Amino acid sequence: MKLIIGLGNPGAKYSGTRHNIGFEVVSYLAQAPGCSSARMKFSSLIVEMKHNDETVLLVQPQTFMNLSGRSVREILDFHKLTPVDLLVVSDDINLPLGKLRMRTSGSHGGQNGLRNIQECLGTDQYPRLRLGVGAPATGEAVDYVLGRFKPGEKAAVEEAIAKAADAAIVWLKRGPEAAMNMANSGVSHQGSGGSEEKKKLTPVKIVKKRTPDTDPPSGVAGPASLTPDP
């Protein structure tokens, strides 16, 4: 089993904000053929998909960003997994808008979700994929990350989300080194080959279909998140 954890804050108030771009990557992946509908467990919205014979959980912690580690720890303990079995996706104000950076260990870089995950896991030895959301020109970083993207940033954000989803699939299929090479190289989404790999996922239950290359993630243009079954 593998986990892909997208970080963000729950609720319509935060939907589409810079801080929630990790949620958007998970939502993008969760709309591919072969994904189950969402369910609430471990204080998280969770969608299940199959990669070959392996179960993959797509997770959006609902504890708010600063307490993300609680959900991650609970899921790892329940399924008897280790930190190397998860990929955490988050925003990063220290990277230019749209730039990706993947590492298998290292500092939390001031990102409070990553900080809490490292505190709860007791280690920084876990894969993480950061998406650049740019830095505030003036003012507080908190206000900036809780704000929404400008219309002129939409194309770069959509491309970054698509490429991050591709990198996550490469991580599942070929491991962290191949995923780092793809994410850190600056190769475009169209040239990554990740979309073809997504098509090879074994179907579980199709909820809704979307063609990733032509239908942009809804969270960029308006509210979006995984929605649990009633």
The overall pLDDT, averaged over residues, is 84
Q: Helix content range of the residues, please?
A: 25-40%
- CATH-derived topology: Rossmann fold
Poorly predicted runs of 5 or more residues: 188-224
Approximate strand percentage = 15-25%
The 3D shape can be described as: globular
What does the radius of gyration come to?
A: 16 Å
- What is the CATH architecture assignment? 3-Layer(aba) Sandwich
Structural class: alpha/beta
Q: In CATH's first tier, which class applies?
A: Alpha Beta
Distance between the termini: 26 Å
Main-sheet strand order equals 2-3-4-1-5-7-6
**CATH superfamily assignment?**
Peptidyl-tRNA hydrolase
Description:
It is a single chain. This protein is of the alpha/beta class and 230 residues long. It has one domain: Peptidyl-tRNA hydrolase (Rossmann fold). Helices cover 33% and strands 17% of the residues. The protein contains eight helices and seven strands, in the order βαβββαββαβααααα. It has helices at 21-30, 68-79, 112-121, 141-145, 154-174, 176-185, 194-198, 218-221, and strands at 2-6, 39-41, 44-51, 54-61, 86-92, 100-103, 128-132. The protein has a seven-stranded mixed sheet with strand order 2-3-4-1-5-7-6. The two termini are 26 Å apart. Residues 188-224 have low confidence and may be disordered.
